[in-house]
Amino acid sequence: MALLASELIKLNNLQLAGKLVSDELMLGIHASKRSGSGTEFEQYRHYEPGDDPKRIDWKLYARTNKHLVRESATESNLHIRFLLDLSGSMNYEEEGISRLHYAKLIMASLAYLGYRQSDQMSLYTLHQGDLQTLVPVGKQSFQKILYALENAQASGPWLHANPAFPDFQQKQKELLVMVSDFLQVGDEWLQLIQHIAGPRREIVIFQLLGEQELDFRLSGFYRFHDLETGREVELQAEAVRASYQQAATEYLSKLDESLHLPHVHLIRVRLTDPVALVLKDFLTRRQF
Length: 288
Hints:
Blueprint: H1 5-10, H2 14-26, E1 35-46, H3 58-64, E2 68-73, E3 79-85, E4 93-94, E5 97-98, H4 99-116, E6 120-127, E7 130-135, H5 141-151, E8 174-180, H6 188-196, E9 201-209, H7 211-215, E10 221-225, E11 232-236, H8 237-258, E12 264-270, H9 275-286
Parallel strand pairs: 3-6, 3-8, 8-9, 9-12
Antiparallel strand pairs: 1-2, 4-5, 6-7, 10-11
């Protein structure tokens, strides 16, 4: 049974949460494509026709009566860049789960998978209109990414001013994983993606939305608070439900159409969705 985000958050330990999700994913996904006969031991798998018999762990066979092959990681040529939205709307919360908490779980889980596969990794944030490098690619990037995620806080609006992204101009193969609500005033997020998209850069956007943001089943009077500007407005939910639902449907449809670009994938996630199931579906389709 897949762990819910609320259960993972209670652990108060991103590394453990990421490992649990990663382990859950590895149960259904064979990730040995990047393994070889290097020097650093990584894992066991069952012997398959064509494998070198010398790689069978015969001592383990004596204990288990199973032919298990030792695998070790080889250096990956994939660079995974994690890009986290830290605008104030990431503090949105439903049923004790904030968008930011869920975003951290996604990134910690994918970082754990990347660590297991010896991928190069780095972490960036979008905050107050600037791209900030929290963890550059290098040694111990996995632990540094976890530490930076633990301490990341969201606040303020996304003041998009068409900034330059020199770190994203490399010509190596890379995967850019962006986690955001992707809610915009104009087309600032679309402009950003169009600016950094390219044939050697696969972009995956996890758009995190709450049940009420998608369905708006509230009843009665509410004071709505803008988490980025601080503006407040009191409304009767039933009076605005139909117009809200229509506007939300139109916005999401436009987003789907606008992001139907080569090498760009949009994955819409509800905060109630189990993290492992969200990632398993994505990774299975992508052959990560």
